[in-house]
Amino acid sequence: MNQSARNGWLLSLPALILLVVGAAGPLLIVAVYSFLEPGDFSGVEWSFTTEAWFRVFFERDIFDDTVSAADAHLTILWRSVKLSLLTTLVTFVIGFPTAWFIATQPPNRRAMWLFLITIPFWTNLLIRTFAILEVIRNQGLLNSFLQWLGLIDAPIQILYTDGAVLIGMAYVYLPLMVLPLFAAIDRFDFRLIEAAYDLYASRLLVLRRIIVPIVRPGIVAGSILVFVPSLGAYVTPRILGGGKNMMIGNFIDLQFGQGRNWPLGAALSMLLLFIVMAALLAYVRVTSSEDRQNV
Amino acid sequence: MSERRAKPFSITAMPGFATIAILAFVLLYVPIITMVIYSFNASNSVALWGGFSFRWYAIAWENDTVQEATVRSLVIAVSAALIASTLATLAALGTTRRKKFKGQTFVYVMINQPLMVPEIVTAVALLIFFAAIKKATGYTGLAYLILAHSAFCVPFAYLPIRARLEGMDLTLERAAADLYATPFQTFRRITLPLMAPGIAAGAMLSFVISLDDVIITEFVKSAGQDTLPTYMLGQLRRAVTPEVNAISTALLGLTVLLLTAFFLLTRKRG
Fold first, then answer.
1. Interchain contact B88–A (C-beta under 8 A)
2. To the nearest whole angstrom, how far is the Cα of A18 from the nearest Cα of chain B?
3. Does residue A211 lie within any of the structural domains?
4. What broad class describes the main subcellular location of this protein (chain B) (predicted)?
5. Which of A13, A18, A104, A143 to mutate: most B Cβ within 10 Å?
6. From A139's CA, which of A74, A111, A119, B44 has a CA 20 to 30 Å away?
7. How many domains does chain A have?
8. ipTM beyond cut 0.85
C-alpha cells in the first residue's frame, strides 16, 4: 500500500470504528438473533433454529400442527407496502407540479420557495406528525372546517385509520419528493419544449414525451427517498394509526416490548432491511444505466 | 426569439401546476402554523381558543421533567455534533484530494450506511447490543446515547465538509509549502481555516439531526433518560395539552434559526 492510501485509511479509521460500533456492527447481531430461540421473558436462548423466519410467514396450529399462512403478519406487511406505495404516489402527484412551479420561478424568488420547502424538511418529524394530528383529529381544524361549511353534520373519524397514516406520511415526506424533482427540473433545457411546441406538439405530449423521460432520474430518486422511509416508518403510524393500524416498524417494536419475541423481531428487522436494500440496489442500477446512456 | 412569443403563451406553463403547488405550500404550512398559534392558547384545550398567553411556555419551563430532558437533549446533541464533525473532518481529509485508494468505496458505504438502513432496524440492533453491555458492565449512563447519536450524525457532518474540501483551491497550500511551512503548519494555518465553514455547517446539521432523533433514542435510553422528543412522544399517548405545542414551537424556532445560519454559511461565495 502506498503512503497516500495508508493515510487515507488512517484518517478514515476513527469514523469507521465509530460507525462499526454504533451502527453497522450491531446489525450482524440482529442477523444472528433471528436464528435463535426466544427466551422465557425476553432476550434469547442460544440454540439454532429457523423458527423465527418460519413464523414471519406461517403459523402452526397449536393442536394439530397444521401449517397455514400467518395472516396477521402478512396483513401488516401488506399494509406497510401498500401505504408506502400510496404515499409515494400521492407525494409524486402533488410534488411534481410543486417542483415544476419552483423551478420555473424567476431566480430571485426561487430561493425563497426552496427555503419554504426546506424548513419542513429539517423540522422534527415528530413535531410535524403532531401538527397534522391536530388538524385531522375529530375536534381538529379539518373537521371543524367541514362542519362550518355544512358538508358534514358530525366529525368524520380520520384519526386511527389507514387513511390517517397515509395523510401523515404524505405530509411528512412531501419535501423528500420535491427536492430531487426540483434538482432534475432545474437542469432541464427548456428550449426542448419550445422546439416541441414549434413542431406542433400538444401540452400533454410535451409532458409525456419530453419532460417526464428527461427528469426520470429525479422521479426515481424522489420515489426511493419517499418509499424507503415510509416502509420503515415508526413514529407516524404509531401516533396517527393507533394500536390496530400497525406498520412493520411498529410490529418490530412490539416484538421487543410486549410481544417478547426477540428472534421474531430480529427476523422482521432483517426482512425490512432486505426490502430496503433491494429498492436501493434497483435505484442504483436504474440511475447508473441511465448515466451510461447519457454519455 | 422571445419577442416572437411575446404573447401570454408561456412555454413553461402547465395547466393547474401552479394551483397544485400553491395548495401544496398551504397544506405544508397550515398544520405547522396552527400548532404555533395554539401554543399561545390561554385555555386548557388544543381545540378551543381562550385568548393569547405565554401560559404553556411558563408551564413547560417550570416542569422539572422538561428541564431535565432539555438539558439531556442538549448535552447529547452537542457531544454528538463535536464527535461526528471531528471524525468526519478526518475522514473527509482521508477521502478527498488524493488518488482513490483501494477500499475507498467501502469507506463511503460505511459512512453513508446510517442514511440507508431503516432507523427502526438500527434502533433494534443497538437495543440488543447495548442491553448486553449494560448487563455485563452495569453502566447505564448517557454514553450509549452519545455513541449512537455520534454514529448516525457522521454522514450529515461528512457531506458538507467533503463538498467544501472538493471545492477548495490547492494553490494556497502549495504556496505555503513553497514558503517552507511544515505540513502541520500548512494544515493549521491554511487548510483548516479554509475548511472551517464546512465543518461548522456539518456540526450544525449533526446538532439538528441529533436533537430531532426519536426512534434510536427511544430504544437505546435507559430508564429516566428521556430527551425532549421521547418525552413528547410519551405525552402524545396521554391527553395532549398545549404544553406539547409550546415545546414543539420552541424546537421549531431553534431549527429555523440554525437552518438560516447553515444557509448563510454554505452560500456560494464570490
1. yes
2. 6
3. yes
4. membrane
5. A18
6. A119
7. 1
8. yes
